[in-house]
Amino acid sequence: MIKQFLAGLAVLAGTSPVALMAQDDIEGQIDALLAEMTLEEKVGQLTQYSSFWDATGPAPQGGEQEEKFEQVREGRVGSMLNVVGRDEVRAVQELAVEDSRLGIPLIFGYDVVHGHKTIFPIPLAESASWDIDLIEQSARIAAVEAAAQGLNWTFAPMVDISRDPRWGRVMEGAGEDPYLGARIAVARVKGFQGDDLSADDTIAATIKHLAGYGFAEGGRDYNTADFGTVTLHNVILPPFKAAVEEADVRTAMNSFNILNGVPATGDAYLQRDLLKEAWGFDGFIVSDWASGREMIDHGFAAGPRDAAELAIEAGSDMDMESYIYRDHLAGLVESGAVDMAIVDDAVRRVLRVKHELGLFKDPYRYVDDPDQEDILMSPDHRAVALDVAKNSIVLLKNKASLLPLKGGEKVALIGALAADKDTPLGNWRAAGETGTAVSVVEGFEAAGVSFTYREGAAVEVGEAGFPQPVVVNTTDRSGFDAAVAAARKADKVVLVLGEDGLQSGEGRSRSDIGLPGVQQELLEAVHAANPETVLVVMSGRPLILDWADANVPAIVQAWHLGHESGHAITSVLTGDHNPGGKLPMSFPRSVGQIPVYYNYMMTGRPGPLENEVFWSHYNDLPNTPLYAFGHGLSYTGFNYSGLEITQGGRSVTVSVTLENTGDVAGTEVAQLYLRDPVASVVRPVRELKGFEKVMLEPGESTLVTFELTDAELGFYDPYGNFKVENGDFEVYVGGSSAADLGGSFTWSSN
Length: 750
Ligand code: NOJ
Description:
- The strands form eight sheets. This protein has a six-stranded mixed beta sheet with strand order 11-18-17-16-12-13, sandwiched between helices. It has a five-stranded parallel beta sheet with strand order 4-3-2-1-10.
- Strand 12, helix 18 and strand 13 form a beta-alpha-beta unit.
- The protein has 23 helices and 27 strands.
- Among the domains are: 36 residues, no CATH class; 65 residues, no CATH class; 204 residues, 3-Layer(aba) Sandwich (Rossmann fold), CATH 3.40.50; 110 residues, Immunoglobulins (Immunoglobulin-like, Sandwich).
- It is globular.
- The protein is an alpha/beta fold.
- The site of 1-deoxynojirimycin has 9 residues, from loops.
C-alpha cells in the first residue's frame, strides 16, 4: 500500500509514470512508462510463471517457486497463473506492487473454463443447449466467482472447432460448427468480460488456441494439424474473428500444434497479419504452456534463444512457462537481433489490458473485500447451473415413449457413474471441490423416485500419473450379477454409463471411444435381463453408441453436467423438464468414420449407387453419422411447414411455421441450413446459418424467421478473401442438420 500511496502523491505532483497509468490517456501514459522501464522490466511484463509446477505439464529446470517470487520482487514477472485463493493472490500481488522498483501490478490468470467454484456443465454440454443467453450467464457467473477470489483473467473460452471426438479436448469447445461456435464464443467472452472490464467482477477472456489445435491428426492431443486454407478461413477462424470483432476479447492464446509446417507460436501470419493487423486486435497474445520452447522439439527453432526470437517476431507477446523470453529476449534486443519496437509493442499490449482491468487504479481491487467471496456457490449461482445443466441434456432416442418414467414405476438405477460425485464436475473444475456434484442417486432421492441402486461395474480402479490422475478402466465384473438381478425385478432400468470426468480433456485422447472398460458388457447383460432400459451417457465427447442405438429403447446424452448434474438428469428422466438440447457435434457410428461432420464438401462421386463399387462410401457402413449434428428429441413433437422466402434489398428472409404437435410444452431449436450449390470454391453440402430456440405450449404454433445477408451468403476463398457470389442458393429448415423442408432463391447483388 505504501507504494500506491506514494504513487498517488506522485500523481498529484505529476511525476510517477506508474501512478499516471491510473489516468485515462492510456496510450500516452504507456509511452511514459515504457520510457521509464529497463529492458529487463519490459521482458518481465512478457514473462508469465505458474505458481505451482503441475498444472498441465512438467516445468523445465531452473525455477523453484521461491526463485519465481524473488523475480516478481525484481519486476521481472508480468503475470502469474494458477495462484488460487484470495489471500494467495493478494500475497503475490503485494510482492509486485510493494517490492518491485516500479510496482507494476501482476495480472492473474487461471483456467476458469466451466465455472469457478460453482461448476457448470462442460462447454461442449453447454453448447448443446444452443441457448446463447444462458451460456453468457454461465460465463458471467464464472467471472464473478473467479474475480471474487482475486483472479482477473481466464484462459477461456476455447473456441477450437473440432470434428474428431477422439480428441479429448472436444469437451472444452463448442463442437464442430463454425457458426454455432462463433455465437457461443461471443457469448462466453461477453459473459467473462461484461460491459465494463474495469469493474471488480469482470475478468479478461482468452480465445484459444490460435489456430487449428482441434484438427490434431488422429485426434491425438498436441499432434500436427494439416488442413487447407479454405478450412482455415471458413471453419477454424470464424469463432476467433467473431470474438475479436463482436466482443472485443482482450487476450488470445496460441497453440501447441504446427500448421503448414509452422508452430503456431512462431506463426506471424496467424498472430500478426490476421489477428493483430487484419482484425485490429489490440489486446495481447499469451503462448500456451511452454509452446515457445517446444518449437525446438518441433524442429523449428535451433535452441531457446532462437525460439525466443521466432516467437516475439511472430507476435507471441507473453511467454507462459517457457523461460525463453526471461533468458534470451534482453540479449536478443541488445545484440540487435530483435528490434526494441517489437518488445515495446508487446509490453504496451500487456499494460493496456492491465489498465483496462483497473489494476493501475487499484491493484488490490479484486482482493480487497472479503465479502466478495460470499457469492461463491450462492443459491442463485446454483440455480443457473441447474438451468444450464437441464438445457444441456440431449434426448438421443426414445422408442415408444419409454421416457419419461411414470410415477409408481420401480426403477433399477445401475452404474458407478450414477453415484459418482466427482465425474460430473468434468475435467477443468477450476476451484470446484472434488466430490461435491449432486449424483443421480441423490437426484432420485430428492425427487422421491422409487429405486434400487447397484454399482454394476466401477469406471476406474486406479489412479496414477502426472499431473492429474490417469483413469484406469476396471476389468472387475463382480458387480454384474447383483445389477442383473435388480434389473430383472424392476419395471424399468436406468443405466448410467460412460466416461469418468478425467477421461476427456487435455492429454486425454482415446482411440476407442466406445463405453470404457467392461461397461458395454454390463449394458448388454442388463438389457438382456430387462429390455425396458434407459441408457444415460455421461461423457466429455461423443461416444460410439451403435449397439445401444440398435438395441436400447431410450438414450439420454448427459455429458458432464457440473454441480447440479443429478438434479438435472432426474428432472429429464421424470419429465419434470422436457429435454430440448441438440447435438453440437455428430456422433459417429464407428471410429473408422471419423471425421464425420455435417458440413462436408460434396465429392465427385457422391452416390449413393446401389450395388455399385466406385462411389465415395464404406463397404461396411453408411456415410451418415449415428446421430446428426443438431439432433435432439423432446417428449413432444414438432412440425415444420410453410417455408417462405422473400427477398428485399440486401437480405433474404426465410420463414417457417413451427408447431408443437404433442400434448406437453416443449422447447425446439429451429435451425436454418444454407447451400450454395455452385461457387468458385466448392461449398459444403449445407451450413448452419441461423437458429432460434422456441418454447411452445401443446398445440401452439409460431412463425420463425431467419434473415440472410452477405455475412451468411458469402465465404472465404483459399487466400482469405471474403466473397459473395451471385447465383442460386438452397435453404433447409428443421430440427437438425438432416432437415428436409427446403426452398431456393437466386441471389444477385446488382
Ligand atoms: C495448456 C492448455 O493447452 C491451455 O489451454 C491452458 O490454458 C494452459 N495449459 C494453462 O493451464
